[in-house]
Amino acid sequence: MAVYTELDRHELTEITEDYGLVRLLTSSGIPSGSVNTNYLLETARGRHLLRVDEVKGELEVKRELDLLLFLRKHGFPCPQPLADRKGRYYRETGGKCFSVYRYYDGHVVPSERLTTGQLESIGRALADLHTICKSYKKGIDNRFSFERVAGVYGEVRGRLPSYFKRIVRTLDDEVDYLHNYLEGKLPKGIIHGDLFVDNLILKGDKVIAMLDFEAACRGKFIFDLATAVNALCFADEQYHLKRFEALIAGYEGMRALSLAEWDAFPNELRFSAFRFTVTRLRDFYLQPVDEQTRVSKDFREFYERLRILRRERDGGMEPLLMAMATGYDYRKYQKVKALEKKSSK
Question: Can you give the pTM of this predicted structure?
Fold first, then answer.
């Protein structure tokens, strides 16, 4: 259960009253998630979520909240932070920051059950995020750049069991490969950085909320899309072309990919798989917690994706590579660029 900070009934009641929610009816810790503590608050004014940031410091929390308020102002479906009676969007308890958000009624759909309509909607929402945030000029440090992830791997490498030799050889080789072949000069802006199914609330085909901007930062748009492909277009041990096509169709309906982005797509898929392999290894081997509260996401899920992307095993990569090789549409790209230029005037 991912409740690392225990708050008693008295503390939760006080928070409820301070945020103008009148009265706490019931509360419960939310077991999903591996980074922060979350509580569901049933109040006299409906359901709300309380989040305690277990990793971010005050400055990082303020930056995330500022981004969410900017997105809400522009009509993007993301968490809506509430202000307390003094106008504060976050408070401190035990040296950690907490914030309160409106709860969204909808469904988290398992990735294997996502329909093409839902995938198109998710693609549009991600492109909408990237487009809106082009006007967001404040910087948010990228904690998951290649250099930092490679550094994390260096830290965790010596802690891995001896029977991980083959895995270590693969990851060592991947560090060398990505160092030489990742392209840095690609369109950048604010990205979500962690677009998994549990961060998406759906009603029918519509995305009504994109959650958990904990990893949001300034980064490459194509990396964000690659992470979504790795998370949403993979099922039954392989990538599925129809899922990929639906996600990309939704995305390109809002923002067309440049030729450079299409060219970089396979390597960004590899980097995304490497990033989540490494950070899950770190969370298990370098951040030990009580086994009753540990939420350990299996690194092998993304390690096996990485092996497919490296073409070391079968898994539907060939159709994806063909789709990427033929995906660029000059006319569509020029049309979207012209519309962007017009809207910025």
Answer: 0.90
